[in-house]
Amino acid sequence: MREFTEQEKVRREKLAKIKDLGIDPFGSKYNVTDFSLDIKNKYAGKTHEELEKLNIEVSVAGRIMFIRKMGKASFFSLKDKLGNIQVYISINDVGEEIYSLFKSADIGDIVGVKGTIMVTGTGEITIKCKEYTHLVKSLKPLPEKYHGLSDIEERYRRRYVDLIMNDEARKIAFARPKIIRSIQKYLDNLGYVEVETPILGTILGGAAARPFITHHNAQNIDMYLRIATELNLKRLLVGGMDAVYEIGRIFRNEGMDRKHNPEFTTIELYKAFSDLEGMMDITEGIVSTCCMELNGTYEIDYLDHHLSLAPGFRRAHMVDLIKEQTGIDFFQITDTNEAKKLAKEHNIEIEEHFSFGHIVNAFFEKYVEDTIIEPTFVFGHPVEISPLAKKDPKDPRFTERFELFILGMEYANAFTELNDPIDQYERFENQLKEKDLGNEEANDMDLDFVEALEYGMPPAGGLGMGIDRLVMLLTGSETIREVILFPTMKPRD
User: Which of 27, 386, 464, 487, by CA, is between 20 and 30 Å from 116?
Assistant: First the structure.
């Protein structure tokens, strides 16, 4: 049996009275023609006399957020998707019965208002209510106005309340689709085609990550939720779709922190006859365009740093960056044992499957990653950690791959794509060996993908970018949970 607070009991009593009046307490269709912010922007600066002469009629709907009940006239604040607007309601304008209905309203109720625009003595744009419509009775009181949901965990669990009370959360919720639309428009204008590929698969590939495993009952087989969209998108290049992208959910069975959620959104794109440099240009274009279209400037403040996201990001080889921080030049080291010795001297833990390239990457992660502030393309990743990237013809220990780092966080990962089926087969074999040595993030052997390459895949560039992290950056959000409407949460006890 549910227990109700005194406030909840009172609201249920009011619900019964609304029914007695023949009014549906949970409403029906209402014709909304105007929104709060548009009204305030359009008529800002108008005098009372000017507005009275114009006699502008509007129809709005939203949630009551504040009520100042007086005798025969009152004010209340109505919140719609764009913000708040003040409403003036008088018994002389709506009649005694409707005014009585209004006076029984609670904060949180959803109502419709038709009226004309006026300005108060304090200069606030206000709707003078001519027609008041009860739409939905709120049976739970909202949190206290100035604190909202003080428990951070509850904010994410009850995102619907957070969006009511927290204007910043609402701003981010509307900013995210704008950013995604900016990306789509940017790529569509370049001739890319948006596609969809399967979320369920039987082979683990396209990234180094632990998967979620599920079971298909009809076929009696275990399947993975995808950890990347890469291999299917590259199959489309083989098929003649020369420029494709997908924005979609990815699932990785890994830890949660300020930068990671088990399910997240990425964009992956692939362009035939392009390469690493082309992917740098397009990554730069996406980030700078989204920033300008959302914020009207390339300049942002994030995590106590002022940054410019204008085109012209720094480009630096991983080995050169390691040398800047440690003095060690891995271009000059050719022996894996020597690399392991250096790792031990620098307190880097060596796992059983580590070879030269893993050690280089470990040095980068320990000594370089957190030092990168301005947008930087870090390229030249070792071949051992890049099973899908083309080797650098000048030094085949490294690949034509980059990651974009800003403030120590990775935002994008891109390659000159490996299209040699023989090399690809060998890379998959090496991944299997790593798996046998305990690397749970190693790729499976995908023979179908190798076969696809045997038909011939054009030289190509490919890019993967985290949408959630980009939204964090552009909205100034410090945690990924702020930009995912319903982040993964532990169940309540």
Answer: 27
